[in-house]
Amino acid sequence: MQINSRLLVRIIKNLPNYIFVKDSNLVYQLCNHNFVTAIGGSNPIGKNDYELPWDKNSVMQYQQEDKYILSTGKSILNKEVPMYLAEKKKILSVSKVPIYDIEHQHIIGILGVYVDITEKKKAEKAIIQAKEAAEVANQAKTEFLENMRHDIRTPLSGIIGCAELLQSKTNDLTISEYANDLVKSSHALLDFHNNVLEGIQVATGEIPFVKKKFDLRQPLEEIINLNKSLAAEKQLILQFHYDERIPQYVMGDPVRVQRILLELLSNALTFTKKGQVTVNIALKKKESREVIVELSVSDTGMGIPKDKQEEIFIRFKRLTPSYKGIYKGLGLGLTTVKQFVDDLDGEIYVESELDHGATFTCFIPFQEPLVMDETTVEEIPLPDYGKSNKAVTTRVTPISSEEIGNSKILLVEDNVLAAKAAAGVLSEFNYTIDIAPDGKTAMERLQKNVYQLILMDIGLPDTDGIALAHCIRLNQWKKNHATIPIVGLTAHIGERKQECLDAGMNAVIHKPLKKETVQELLTTFMQNESSDEPTASTRFMIKGAVIDFDEIKKILRDEKVIEECQQLMITGLSEDLVKLAAGYQSEDWESIQATAHKWQGGAVYYGAKRLEQACKNFNEYWSTSKKEYLKTLYHQLVQEMEAVVEVCCYKRSVVTF
């Protein structure tokens, strides 16, 4: 088919965009129907921009662009321009290109193509607004969940604490039975609360994904051991088979794997009245470094009807409604399993017949690590689903009330019932308890009294507990006071634990505060002089001022040199704190040790005794074969480096020597 000039002109005139051609004098020589309509219907041929219904500023812009194209031969492509066409505001995508003669030696004009993108821009704007609205709603949801955790768990913790105190102090069997029922009911409500919130977190993808090297067998056996008592109580046989061909260490997410087995096993035990539950872990495939493990849980329980087997993975969907009282649960467990299996790029299948039990089978991919030894392997603790009250500590050695003496604890808690319950537990150890209902009162109490331990709620009415901990630490550093152990009390350790530790807290524990938890805290943070084996915290304990300024004057003497050293410390430590964070993120312990070694010597000359000790702790422990406390000592090192920076900045602003 031959296209002559007339046909070409007809094609151009009927194109849906706005098209025009100008000659080298910027006079219109050709345009299509859309362009004529856009400028009001008058024919532009033989006219220039000054003769068309453009405003003065637009004419100047068009002329400037056109002259640029004619002089340089460069095109203008997809430039977004607002423009009034046919008395309507449009957003156009403007493209202008030079037109050459037949020999392609001289520019003889300009071809312009305007594309109306008004609706597209409106759609983009709507998407942006919808995204912003969703982010605002998501933030509101997050704040609601945070408040819900605190506002529900805190009073419940108080109820449990008071009931346990009542149970321990009464000799009346009836009252003790009532108290026991109250504790059980409160724990059931806490479990319900935790499961609902966690189900929402799983559905919205808020649980972070991690990939680390770990011993696969260890966390799975922990789950089996955790459920042995329940199986024995129901007189069920619980079997566990583990394929020895599976590599000892794999790369993957141990938390999700552990939770998958926990949910499947809990379901199997719940829905099985007699018979057995079997957990089988087998090597399905091993190719190169890829390892696919088959995890299956079989039971001889009630089974699942064929027509309901797809519904069991729907959130909040239950085969037996809760009001019938047959089985407990929220309909969230298998939803969580399905989500976690998907997160791991795995597959899950169910085989079941009504009254003939069920088998859930998961195929989970892992990677075999490059080095098959304990290098970088971390111990995987049992999952914390709101039932554990253990602090981030080491093993417990009992400590008696006589060994404590007349020590004081500051309890920062705004809920009256929770504070009363916690104070009741603490008082059993002969402590003097001061209660502060908010951050302001806590700071006032700290100025007037000396405390051996601070227990602090994370959610306070006038400030965030993390901010308060940071403020306490900063105040201690500025005044060169000894560092008081701070333990955070929270309803949800997992999400904010690291924030708490970074702010200067020594540990974070779950509400409610229990007697055995207090026992562990006292053993960890109160040095027992009669003990031959100190705990981790006492072994690496640092005492004294952040900086000994009297020692500086003795060493350096010259005021100008002291000021210069201050600035060097601020600059050097600030730079190395950034390097330490990067090293910690990549688990480059050698670079962290090199930094600790560097500052152990430097701290001596500036009287930074605490920093010197923190560096010494890390270096000495690094030289041993054990690595279990490296993270603890890393956080101690960072905290002391930050303390020196804070004190140096403070001194430079208010003190002259």
How is this fold's topology laid out?
Layout: H1 5-14, E1 18-23, E2 28-31, H2 33-38, H3 56-72, E3 76-85, E4 88-100, E5 107-116, H4 118-169, H5 173-203, E6 212-215, H6 217-233, E7 237-242, E8 249-252, H7 254-270, E9 276-287, E10 290-299, H8 333-343, E11 347-352, E12 358-367, H9 401-404, E13 408-412, H10 416-427, E14 432-436, H11 439-448, E15 453-457, H12 465-478, E16 486-490, H13 493-502, E17 507-510, H14 515-525, H15 536-539, H16 549-556, H17 559-585, H18 589-605, H19 609-622, H20 630-654
Parallel strand pairs: 7-9, 13-14, 13-15, 15-16, 16-17
Antiparallel strand pairs: 1-2, 1-5, 3-4, 4-5, 6-8, 9-10, 10-12, 11-12
Helix pairs in contact: 4-5, 4-10, 6-7, 7-8, 12-20, 17-18, 17-20, 18-19, 19-20
